[in-house]
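Objective 1b of the project was to move from sequence-level analysis to a structural picture of ligand recognition. The entry below was assembled by the postdoctoral researcher (A.K.) and checked by the PI before modelling. It contains the amino acid sequence of the target and the SMILES of the bound compound, magnesium ion.
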Amino acid sequence: MKNLYIDFDGVIYNSIEVSYKMAEEEKINRDYESYYQFFKNLDWCGVLEESTEINDAFNCIQKIIDCSRFNVFILTHVVSLKEAELKVKLIREHLEDVTIIPVPKKISKTKMVKVKDAILVDDYPENLREWKEAGGIGVRFDLDMDGKGFPVICKLDELIEMF
Ligand SMILES: [Mg+2]
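Corresponding predicted holo structure:
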């Protein structure tokens, strides 16, 4: 069994698009700290309500679990506890049997779990670079199939064929 870590924003839910659009509307400066503060105070309830699931993600994850070849985890960066709370609630409405690991935004995903030989599916190339450097296998999720140097998928159940 391979350990498989799946990102949430931009992979399961298009919440990142929605929140960046909100940041644009509020004319937030494009530096890290301004964004961090914006996300800290963001109304995640509203964001998740306005966001939608990407390419049947929850069903795909259920299929992956059912194929019994992976230990599946959802590994998601969060800026606030409220964000973690709402994401867990939402995921639990769809998936009963998956471990959810919220990671404080300022901590690398590689510092939260054992990376060696584990797979990370993420839309953010920097997360994948760190993951690979730490001994893991990175797979980029991108609807335009632009891998940025990594194997790429645009629907999560493609993982079953890939590994
Ligand atoms: Mg993401």
